[in-house]
Amino acid sequence: MAEVTLIEAVTQALAYEMRQDPSVVVLGEDVGVNGGVFRATAGLHAKFGSERVLDTPLDETTIAGLSVGMAFQGMKPVAEAQFDGFIYPMMDHIVCHAARMRTRTRGRLSCPMVLRAPWGGGIRAPEHHSEAPEALFAHIPGLRVVIPSSPARAYGLLLASIRDPDPVIFFEPKRIYRQYKEEVPDDGEALPLDVCFVLRDGTDITLVTWGAHVKETLEAADRLAAQGISAEVIDVATVKPIDFDTIQESVKKTGRCVIVHEAARTGGIGAEIAANLAEKSLFDLLAPIERVTGYDVPIPLFRLEMKYLPSVDRILAAAQRTLAYR
């Protein structure tokens, strides 16, 4: 069993599904001959040819429209936006057509497409290259939004996303594309969508997060453990629809909750989770819910970028405030 990075796990999943299903095609800017800006599609053009790995013009609107049309005709397109900040021209086709087609046709048609995009900050890229827009897409009925946090989850969740009969937005946290490796069997086993993953059991506090910040949250849990505090860590993974049952069960056990995400605070997924807990778990809570998030400003360039993103120290401070509440 090979040890692979997250980006290699993405490539592995794409290759596996293309071997198994001839209706799967990959398209985007430079995904073919060059293998993509982050090399996520490296080698696929040589293996499957230009009819299944399509280099498109530098035109995100065309990529999205072509993908929707392919999906309506029985294909399974996996489109790539080079960066999360370049995804906005695609929203017209995604929101007005991909997300609505099953309802519009009363179930006669669906739109089995995946839109992949490198997501989030942490690589000191220019403006529009470091955004975390998951809440924009999670607000749209008919879309599924998935964010893996490890090589194994990237592999299994991407396979499940490609096999899903409806459109999936698949955000890949680029900060951890090559940060570490883990063993990922190339066996075609998908992981379930729409469920949270409990990465660490705990009894004193629940830490909820997704994407690249799973790493910092687990580090915070380790530091809390050194203080004798037992933290449960939950990776949401599918941020639309959210598996609220797992989060509620955890909070019922711990009574305290900190939610961590790198997107801007206002209107973020963390607010939705907090609202659900206020509605369904109010009498289980022993303290106010804390959120550790990005700020309500465009992500700053270069030197200030890591100051914008939640740190282990910020997570610990929120946890300590929650634990101190009486």
UniProtKB/TrEMBL annotation:
<protein>
    <recommendedName>
        <fullName>2-oxoisovalerate dehydrogenase subunit beta</fullName>
    </recommendedName>
</protein>
<dbReference type="Pfam" id="PF02780">
    <property type="entry name" value="Transketolase_C"/>
</dbReference>
<comment type="function">
    <text>The branched-chain alpha-keto dehydrogenase complex catalyzes the overall conversion of alpha-keto acids to acyl-CoA and CO(2). It contains multiple copies of three enzymatic components: branched-chain alpha-keto acid decarboxylase (E1), lipoamide acyltransferase (E2) and lipoamide dehydrogenase (E3).</text>
</comment>
<dbReference type="InterPro" id="IPR009014">
    <property type="entry name" value="Transketo_C/PFOR_II"/>
</dbReference>
<dbReference type="InterPro" id="IPR005475">
    <property type="entry name" value="Transketolase-like_Pyr-bd"/>
</dbReference>
<keyword id="KW-0560">Oxidoreductase</keyword>
<dbReference type="GO" id="GO:0016491">
    <property type="term" value="F:oxidoreductase activity"/>
</dbReference>
<feature type="domain" description="Transketolase-like pyrimidine-binding">
    <location>
        <begin position="4"/>
        <end position="179"/>
    </location>
</feature>
<dbReference type="InterPro" id="IPR033248">
    <property type="entry name" value="Transketolase_C"/>
</dbReference>
<dbReference type="Pfam" id="PF02779">
    <property type="entry name" value="Transket_pyr"/>
</dbReference>
<keyword id="KW-0786">Thiamine pyrophosphate</keyword>
<dbReference type="InterPro" id="IPR029061">
    <property type="entry name" value="THDP-binding"/>
</dbReference>
